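Lab meeting, item 3. Inverse folding demo.
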């Protein structure tokens, strides 16, 4: 029976993920995660410093262990081998439950290659069709994550949030113009993909 495979982008591991660190409202450092952690361990900010570290692509705030290497006495236990699961691990196939109505299953089972091949094809087609919209949404969500962490008490926060989700790039830029420079620069970079349709 023919099968259909698609190439998936391999997610970046922690050592290649780019991060940005803020001390208060000022950018402290940025770079690949392993290098940034090494620099912060070598030159830790003072205990009074409000240190916030973000994923440079998603805006997600991260909690990282910045203690010097070897600090602490606990040694992590070796990981148990992963149990064998249904699917084709060499192809990256993961078995999960999908809940559909009987008419959906009937239609899927009549497709060439069966339900799994048809579902993969439908998802890939939707990803292509909605690529720009999905990128815009991801950019808005990334900027919003950082805004709520860094700018919630800054003037114009609520209006800037509304402008971000309304796709009003020029208004957004105007509303955040009085914010601290490093926050403003980071938000504009994160949100840049939100305005591409205009």
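The presenter then showed the designed sequence:
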């Amino acid at each position: 029976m023919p099968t259909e495979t698609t190439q998936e982008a391999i997610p970046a591991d922690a050592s290649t993920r780019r991060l940005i660190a803020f001390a208060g409202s000022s950018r402290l450092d940025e770079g690949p995660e392993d290098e940034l952690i090494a620099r912060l361990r070598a030159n830790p900010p003072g205990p009074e410093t409000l240190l916030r570290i973000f994923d440079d692509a998603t805006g997600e705030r991260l909690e990282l262990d910045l203690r010097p290497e070897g600090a602490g006495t606990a040694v992590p236990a070796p990981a148990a081998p992963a149990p064998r699961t249904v699917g084709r691990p060499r192809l990256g196939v993961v078995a999960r439950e999908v809940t559909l109505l009987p008419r959906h299953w009937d239609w899927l089972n009549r497709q060439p290659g069966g339900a799994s091949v048809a579902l993969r094809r439908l998802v890939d087609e939707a990803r292509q069709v909605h690529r720009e919209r999905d990128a815009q949404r991801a950019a808005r969500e990334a900027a919003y994550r950082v805004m709520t962490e860094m700018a919630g008490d800054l003037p114009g926060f609520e209006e800037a949030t509304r402008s971000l989700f309304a796709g009003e790039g020029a208004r957004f830029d105007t509303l955040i113009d009085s914010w601290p420079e490093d926050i403003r620069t980071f938000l504009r970079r994160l949100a840049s993909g939100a305005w591409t349709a205009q």
